[in-house]
Amino acid sequence: MTTFEEAREGRGVDWRRIARRQGWTVGVWLLLLGTIVFYATLIPNFGDFQITSIAKNSLPLVYLAVAQAIIVIAGGIDLAVGAMLVLSNAVAARLMEGQPFAMTIVIAIGVIVFCALLNAGVGWVITVSKVPDIVVTLATLFIISGLALMVLPSPGGGTSEWFRALFTGSTTGSGSNFWPPLLMMAIPVAIAALFMRRTKTGLSLYATGSSPVAAYLSAINTARAKVVSYAIGGAYAALGGLSALAITGSGESRFSTGSNFTLRSVAAVVLGGVALTGGIGSVVGAAAAGIFLYTLSPVLSAMGVDPNTAQVIQGVLIVVVMMVAGIVQLRRERAE
User: Fold this and answer.
1) Is residue 10 situated within a structural domain?
2) What is the pLDDT of residues 123-138, one digit of tens each?
3) What is the DSSP code (8-state) at residue 336?
4) pTM for the whole thing?
């Protein structure tokens, strides 16, 4: 029988290998689906408005989860990714106020490029100085947060109505048209996933995170991979800031906002199945985890759980997931 015929009948396909690699990602998406279905049973009328609310309000965390996932896969971690979101939000709100839609798009592209270059610089500093990522990005957190406050000392600024509609489906930021936010979520996540799995540069990020020495001996420019991962992370963090601006209609530069987003992005990465040791994971799983972490709050609220208790539950969930992820990683290493 030919290889083609075997493939058609499903023979020769290593389903165990596929399940081992993609099982966690599929599990996270099933967890998200189950959570949404459960949420639908808790409220009287679950429909387009609720779907739109989940889709648009989870956008900033989804973008940030993808940003953090790419950096972690390449063997790093960015504690300033939330601050980068805040900076892009502040800059965009300051420049977009009173501008027509076409100009806000131009400004948005400029903000994304600016944040990508700025974060590429962070990756370059880490590569040249050999200082651990966690130390450099912790310092960067305060620098970028300070820049955001300089740009926008107090909440304000704005953007065009149609820019808001691009991310929220409504010129007012509130409505029942869930297609725009879903598309604005699916397209960037799909681009990141295809880049990571289907390009040489993306695969070099996996190789670098898995084993920098082996990657270097395989003629992979590990320094370039590190800089590229941080540049892409900066671009997606900027998308998060732009989506937050579209949702609220104004800018916000509080330090606590960036810190909270950073912690939640790390939680989404862990829950999404990305190994903090690097080289393992999927941005698709991280995106699903980002949606789940947002959805968990309204679900607990609908159940009548006190907000403080809800925070404890989310924290316990993250700890349990990290423990399970550690056990899975240990079993994988022993099997190899």
Assistant:
1) no
2) 999 999 999 999 999 9
3) -
4) 0.91
